[in-house]
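Q: My labmate handed me this sequence with no annotations at all. I'd like to see what the chain might look like in three dimensions before we decide whether it's worth expressing. Could you predict it?
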Amino acid sequence: MPSALSHLECSQPACAATLDFSPARNLCPSCQAPLLARYDLDGAKRTLSLDALAGRRPTMWRYEEVLPGVEPVTLGEGWTPLIHARRLGRSLGLERLFIKDEGLNPTGSFKARGLAAAVSMARALGADTVAAPTAGNAGGAAAAYAARAGIRSIIAMPSDTPAANIMEARAFGADVRLIDGLISDCGKFIAENAAREGWFEVSTLKEPYRIEGKKTMGYELWEQFEGALPDVVVYPTGGGVGLIGMWKAFEELGAMGLAGRDRPRMISAQADGCAPIVRAFERQERTSEFWEGAQTVASGLRVPKALGDFLILDALYASGGEAVAVDDAAMMAACRRMAALEGVLAAPEGGAGLAAIERLVRDGKIGAGERVVLFNTGSGYKYAEAWQAALEP
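A: Here is what I predict for the chain of 393 residues:
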């Protein structure tokens, strides 16, 4: 079935500019806010159903009506397992705890979804070089999909990025620039050089389609729960595109009449060494402040200020959700429990989500019978240094 992609829309309600999706675009030209892809959902719902999906390919591209209608640059991303974590759930007093294991994507993380969509659209619209800053996993994914597409990639990483992330990006042929600083400094490097060098930026939320790839996690939950949605979604939040994307998916499903009015409570899990969303949520603010001196073993959570912070916070408030910060020791202890009880070797970010669940159960904010989905956003095999330290006697 053809894509129902219609146009792009500014994410800031006060602006709400609408644009054609061609040529390749980054931020809103009027206000510099992220752009969101919009679809003819009346047209999409004619062919998008559980029955129709049953015979489609087991990748994220099965949701073709609500994805860009271009030839996919694909490595088989998406359709990751939803594991009923019975033993882990019992240890927490939860009957229906599930782990959505994104570490089984190509390149070992959920970043594969967003970069597959972004690189597919960039190539279709004529880009010959993509560029992105990364705290780790996004760099490897961008490099892999650029290699698959036959285009160049420029990846800027903090110099202390885990070795596996640096190695994989270079293996895929990326021009890797190591920057002394945080991902925010890498973002500045890419932004300052992209126009002059002719690179197309696929930085987090600086183009419209990484959200589209990430939103397929929400569609998969709907399909894997046979047309229902969970009660609670716990998501490790750095740039927050996955959380924003899933909320967009739930809204689209609702607009198509494929999901009821109830939405999952969205829980943002962060590290206490870098928790700008948690601080803003506690103050009930709509945007966050830059987090000085960001530090955490979970490199994907070391994002001092997300470009789409207002979209993350809007989803938390609208869903009656929460934002929780945990320390590194708690997240790695949670990773060890996940591995020992369920056989899932999680990234530290996944451990942050589990530690957040433990706290919310203890505080009575998650009930024993609720259907709770924990996102493990990456494979622990890519965090050898963190796991080695956690396992030392």
